[in-house]
Amino acid sequence: MKGYMYSNNQSVSSVSSVSGPCNSFCISGHVVAVFLAIVAGVVAGLLFANEMIPNITTVVEIALVLAGISLILLVWGLFTAAVPACQRGRLAACLCCNSTFLLTGIIGTIVASVLALAIELIPGAIAAAVLVGFVAFFFTILLAGLILLIQCLAEGLCAESNWEQAQ
């Protein structure tokens, strides 16, 4: 395993050399999440067009707030993983695997939510139904990205714990 030496003689693994269970889920988890997001977007758009989702504005506002909180947490995690003096190999590896996917969900949710809140969401209007579908699509990507990130971190901790017990 490659590592870097710092002034306090701590060896910190390079991000590319950290392997673990999250690497196997990196692509396959994202493919499943995109498929589920497409289904969620289409279903939400159809339900809204048929007037089956009441108070859609509140739902869009909640999605916007959660996207903002996720963006703050992602930036905090990236800064934390970038600190060389702290051994954050697992966090860095999981963020490398999931940050682009998560950022796509966050930015997409923010943009789609702002656009949806900027117009009057009238059930039956095609543009409103499409925007609701986009909000649902990107919000599902955001939630899936958070789940995959947490899963990667948890499995990494379990793998490291089992490795230490084996020694």
Spell out the key features of this protein.
two-stranded antiparallel sheet; 167 residues; disordered N terminus
Write the layout of secondary structure elements.
Layout (H helix, E strand, L loop, with lengths): L2 E3 L5 E3 L7 H29 L6 H27 L6 H30 L7 H41 L1
Antiparallel strand pairs: 1-2
Helix pairs in contact: 1-3, 1-4, 2-3, 2-4, 3-4
Please explain how this structure is put together.
The structure is a single chain. This protein has 167 residues and is mainly α. It contains four helices and two strands. The chain has helices spanning 21-49, 56-82, 89-118, 126-166; strands at 3-5, 11-13. The chain has a two-stranded antiparallel ribbon. It starts with a strand and ends with a helix. The relative contact order is 0.19. Mean pLDDT is 81; it is low at 1-19.
Distance between the termini: 17 Å
| Sheet with the most strands: spatial strand order | 1-2
Order of helices and strands: EEHHHH
**How many beta-strand segments?**
2
SS strand fraction: under 5%
Radius of gyration: 20 Å
Largest sheet: 2 strands, antiparallel
Number of helices: 4
Q: What would the principal axes of the Cα set say about the shape? A: elongated
Average pLDDT for all residues: 81
Q: Quickly give the structural class.
A: mainly alpha
Unreliable sequence segments: 1-19
Which percent bin holds the helix content? over 70%
Quick take:
By secondary structure, the chain is mostly helical. The protein contains 4 helices and 2 strands, in the order E-E-H-H-H-H. Strands 1-2 form a two-stranded antiparallel sheet.
